[in-house]
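Researcher: Let's continue the batch. This sequence belongs to Elongation factor P, and it's 185 residues. Same format as the previous ones, please.
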Amino acid sequence: MISVNDFKTGLTIEVDHDLFTVIDFQHVKPGKGAAFVRSKLKNLRNGNTVERTFRAGENVSRAHIENRQMQYLYASGKEHTFMDTETFDQINLDQKQIEWELNFLKENMMINILSYQGEILGINLPNSVELKVVETEPGIKGNTAQGATKNAKVETGLNVQVPLFINEGDVLLIDTREGQYISRA
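Model: Same format as before. Here are the structure tokens for Elongation factor P:
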């Protein structure tokens, strides 16, 4: 058990038989009445974000999430196979569980699988990945105002807005949280 007074961003807790990550929290001490903690929580099972208020000093269960490094092997229909590189155990995840993450996954890529008491919650990608541009329009000289961009399709099928100087075959660094271009790799 952990007191809500000890909340930190990124802490995982169990409330009403659901798993949440603390995204934001605020200790409130009103002039009249008891103190409380206002928090913003992300559900790890369905991705929904909820706002929840706890009384100051209230206790909640802390959830210990297991983080196993695994290698992405291949896709077979809507199933995606991952392998533990130490034990060679393989697990399959449904496409619905990792829909956003598929925009950044390449075969043989190392990622972290998140699980809680044997239940697989999803995957945790690095903050940025290198992806190759497979399709983009050529940049036209003189067609620039400030910060002009064009559309580029990378090897995973993700469309990204990139500067005009990016060409097909370039390898880009892409932010996995926002799906945006960072720089050339």
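Researcher: Any comment?
Model: The mean pLDDT is 89.
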